[in-house]
Amino acid sequence: MSNDAGRLEGKVCVVTGGGSGIGRAVCLLFAQEGAAVVAADVNAESAERTAEAILSQDGRGTAMEVDVSQAESVRRMVESTVEELGRIDVLVNNAGFGFAATVVETEEADWDRLMSVNLKGVYLGCKYTVPVMIRQGGGSIVNTASAAGLVGVPDRAAYCASKGGVIAMTRAMALDHVGDGIRVNCIAPGSVESPYFDDIFARAEDPAALRRQMESRHPIGRLGAPAEIAQGILYLASDDSSFVTGSALSVDGGMTAH
Ligand SMILES: NC(=O)c1ccc[n+]([C@@H]2O[C@H](COP(=O)([O-])OP(=O)(O)OC[C@H]3O[C@@H](n4cnc5c(N)ncnc54)[C@H](O)[C@@H]3O)[C@@H](O)[C@H]2O)c1
């Protein structure tokens, strides 16, 4: 693994949802950039696979099991990271999921579960990490929102609400912690080829038609790749974005440019 650029050299970075898709791509890129990476995921095996991939490329990677919707689990993730690695410079609150439904079709239990992972999970990650960053004199937090938090997407009411909440909380937190040397930003991806979409395609009546419809929402004419989103997250996480806080960076093939 080459550390030529080393934009995160010496930094400790925690990435939730690090076992799959965008989170896995972020872990691998951050390690290439010199970071010690904690791949944290509710799926412990997938987090292990990410850590192994990092180690096999001579990077620094650790796997951790976490359920971001549970305060005690998140508190332990933060405590263990500080015990093992001494600090947390970057937190990427990336764990999340979605489902297709209008408000009327959405069951209350499904609404609660989505909010507890996509929105409360970001709150809990920040709640336990910000005090560590304050003690250190600063840090960078990147939340994975979505284009669906900026514009309406049909049949995704709860998901849109959760990601709109992430964007609003990002802005509020940026103001609350600017004096602590902590920058807080979010990334707003368009549709990305990840296991998340593999599931959606697999369940579709006509997967090819669904793919064409999703591609057509992006003026660039295709879905994104996890590695393309990871580049945006790297920018927000690193000192390259030292004058950026409270922003929602669109990496969406032009989806929200309409
Ligand atoms: N794929 C897309 O098109 C797309 C677009 C915009 C935003 N996003 C967002 O990007 C993030 C990552 O999505 P992805 O596409 O890589 O999906 P993914 O399903 O490939 O990965 C999500 C990861 O989060 C983990 N996770 C789920 N619930 C968790 C919990 N309670 N605690 C800890 N980990 C948990 C899963 O185990 C999985 O490893 C999500 O927040 C998603 O909403 C995805």
Topology readout:
Elements: E1 12-16, H1 21-32, E2 36-41, H2 44-56, E3 60-65, H3 71-85, E4 90-93, H4 108-118, H5 120-136, E5 139-144, H6 157-176, E6 182-189, H7 195-203, H8 207-216, H9 226-237, E7 248-251
Parallel strand pairs: 1-2, 1-4, 2-3, 4-5, 5-6, 6-7
Helix pairs in contact: 1-2, 1-9, 3-5, 4-6, 7-8
Bound molecules: nicotinamide-adenine-dinucleotide.
Protein described:
The protein has nine helices and seven strands, in the order βαβαβαβααβαβαααβ. Helix 2 (about 45-55) links the parallel strand 2 and strand 3 (about 60-65). The chain has a seven-stranded parallel β-sheet, sandwiched between helices. The chain is an alpha/beta fold. The mean pLDDT is about 95. Helix 3 runs parallel beside helix 5 (about 120-135) and helix 4 (about 110-120) packs parallel to helix 6. The protein has helices at about 20-30, 45-55, 70-85, 110-120, 120-135, 155-175, 195-205, 205-215, 225-235, and strands spanning about 10-15, 35-40, 60-65, 90-95, 140-145, 180-190, 250. The chain is globular, with a radius of gyration of 17 Å. It folds into two domains: about 10-190 and about 225-250, NAD(P)-binding Rossmann-like Domain (Rossmann fold, 3-Layer(aba) Sandwich), CATH 3.40.50.720; about 195-225, no CATH class. The structure holds nicotinamide-adenine-dinucleotide. Nicotinamide-adenine-dinucleotide (NAD) binds near residues 42, 66, 67 and 191.
